[in-house]
Amino acid sequence: MIKLLYISTNRDWSGSEELWARSSRLFSAQGFAIASITSYAHEQLRAVPGEKLLLLPPSAASTGLPERVWRKIVKPKDKVRQFIEQYAPDFVIVSQGNNYESLEVMQLLGSMSLPFVTVTQLASESFFWAFTNDRLLAIQQAYRSATCNYFVSEHNKRLTDFMLGGTLSNAEVIYNPCKIAQSVPAITQPPSGVYQVALVGRLDCWHKGYDLFLQVIGRPEWKKRPVLFNIYGTGPHSLLMEQQITHLGIQNVRLHGHQADVAAIWAANQLLVMPSRMEGQALALIEAMACARTAVVTDVGGATELIEDNDNGFVAAAATTSSIAEALERAWAGRADWHQLGQKAAATLAAKYPADAVEYFNASVANYFKTAEPA
User: By the 8 A CB rule, do 315 and 307 touch?
Assistant: First the structure.
């Protein structure tokens, strides 16, 4: 039996975890042995099969120790090595939230002569700080030691190659899975004459650009228009956003918290807005398009690999208030066409994405470890 190990270097569960978690379940159903290592606890991990190593430190409240002290005592790297040695995987899948965070894991796997692939969910120009003289050669070697390096958008693959000085040769683009398993009814006219617009994602202004969006809809013209902005998600900037909304006097925005039922979001909303400063290939965009909803996106990550300006959606040239305001104005002016644009968005997704992104990923990974199958 082939033994697979998944290592996620993310610090919490987010949309970027969906691919590796679903991949593990599919491989398990096909008879492969599965184990995983994570640095966070989340109810979604219960569905991940096999042995698990959790590196999350106890809370300071229960131990009296801050995380930095706990990590000096426990030494997670030693625990990871011990777990790997005991489990003895045939192949390892490393999932990283950004394109530099798994360096130590990749180095460890290389030192143990274990074959592995990486999956990178996010690359951004703001990460150049990690590719400095004292780290660059080590990061280049880590990527070279991987059997393959996967990226969820062509943009992220191309940018990471540039950050690595043009040395990335073993790289492929794969796709994030869509959680929609049911059709969602079209909304051709706004209920009660009020248009419903959704923003879906972690409440993290640094990443998702919600601060930029709030500054735009805090302008007088948006306050008097028949539109309600529904924000779905939780995150580290929820309190700040509440205060910003109050400060700007915005009455037509609602913070709904996390909504697990994606279909319910798109049964109520006609348009997605993503004012992000950085993205890989956002699940929120994939899900909206699968539900035949058009979108306003910033030109970051793989957004324009799916959204073509004025064809199936609207593109803000940059993650700035002026660019987002301009794109939102064009979207509002063309609101009568949102349904038609949403239909085009769904057709675009169907043409560019595999029917099952997880099956596509697993088939690709299997090509790399099939030589390890016992005779």
Answer: yes
DSSP 24: H
- β 294-298/195-200 pair status: unpaired
Tens of pLDDT, residues 313-323 = 999 999 999 99
Which residue ranges make up each domain of the chain?
3-177+356-372, 191-352
CA–CA dist 21, 75 (Å, integer):
25
Q: Please enumerate in sequence order all residues whose Cβ is within 8 A of that of 267, keeping only pairs 6 or more positions apart, or say none.
A: 184, 185
User: What kind of fold does domain 3-177+356-372 have according to CATH?
Assistant: Rossmann fold (3.40.50)
Q: What is the pLDDT of residue 188?
A: 82
| Residue whose token pair is 């143990």 | 112
Mean per-residue pLDDT for 26-51?
Answer: 94
CATH T-level fold of 191-352: Rossmann fold (3.40.50)
Contact criterion met (CB below 8 Å) for 14 and 202: yes
Average pLDDT over residues 60-78: 57
Instruction: Look at the block and give the residue holding tokens 């992104």.
Output: 357
Q: Are 280 and 120 in contact (CB under 8 A)?
A: yes
Of 134 and 73, the structure prediction assigns the larger pLDDT to 134
d(CA 140, CA 160): 10
Q: What type of residue is 270?
A: Q
Encoded amino acid at 151, one letter? F
Overall size of the chain counted in residues = 375
Phi-psi region of 257 (alpha: psi -120 to 50; beta: other; left: phi over 0): left
